[in-house]
Design brief:
Blueprint lengths: L23 E3 L6 E6 L19 H13 L3 E5 L4 H11 L6 E6 L7 H11 L22 H10 L1 E6 L4 H11 L5 E3 L2 E3 L31 H8 L1
Parallel strand pairs: 2-3, 2-4, 4-5
Antiparallel strand pairs: 1-3, 6-7
């Protein structure tokens, strides 16, 4: 008599999930993977900070739609190396089932947002809330709790497809993440590892710093950080 296979742990996301608005589609809440498509497009006006006010190129729209149709929990675009990353963090930590982040699309000129995401997961942030070891010019995470940043780094594994726009490759990456048994995808061994074993974190951007790109690095001193925390 064969032994029963252990069930993969799945949990309900936070009731407010996904807490942040943006240009994304919501798929299966119990999927272990989210997809972030880098967006090279004109920046929005200062009073229109969300990417939903930007005309998204068709090939980017198609990648976002493909991600969800293939089985991703979330598929969306990201443009900036600060608030854009903060929004992704808030939405991911609101759903412990998400254990992989597929990063694809061409690098964002002038922002190096893809490089910033990779550096965040590899190195974290310093005591000035700056992502360490990135080429991004303003990689500041001022508007979300430190707890959310650390959870994000522990919760997800990055599938690095920076520069990739081939729909078949992105689709295969998503598919590989929710297999029951380990499968090889490029240099990764992927399968559904189950939900992160701690409750969801529900948070939103505070907008304490609405234009992080206007902050000079020399301004971020101990007093600046203390005001943020207060």
């Amino acid at each position: 008599m064969s032994e029963a296979k252990p069930e993969i742990l799945k949990v309900k996301p936070s009731p407010e999930y996904p807490p942040e608005e943006g240009h994304y589609l919501r798929g299966n809440d119990y999927s272990p993977v989210a997809v972030a498509v880098l967006l090279n497009a004109p920046r929005p006006l200062p009073n229109q900070p969300d990417t939903k006010d930007i005309e998204i190129p068709p090939h980017i729209e198609n990648l976002v739609r493909l991600a969800v149709e293939t089985g991703a929990a979330l598929g969306g675009t990201i443009q900036t190396e600060n608030i854009g990353i903060e929004k992704i963090i808030c939405n991911v930590v609101g759903n412990p089932n998400i254990r992989y982040l597929v990063l694809c699309g061409g690098e964002v000129e002038g922002h190096n947002t893809g490089d910033a995401i990779k550096a965040l997961l590899r190195n974290g942030i310093n005591d000035r809330r700056t992502i360490m070891g990135t080429k991004a010019p303003t990689p500041y995470l001022f508007n979300i709790p430190l707890e959310a940043i650390e959870r994000f780094r522990k919760q997800v594994v990055l599938i690095d497809l920076l520069g990739e726009t081939n729909k078949e490759v992105v689709s295969k990456a998503v598919w590989s993440c929710y297999q029951e048994k380990p499968i090889k995808f490029m240099d990764y061994t992927l399968y559904d590892v189950g939900a992160y074993p701690e409750p969801a974190i529900c948070c939103k951007t505070t907008w304490r710093i609405k234009k992080p790109e206007t902050i000079e690095e020399w301004e971020i001193d101990e007093e600046f950080i203390k005001k943020l925390e207060d």
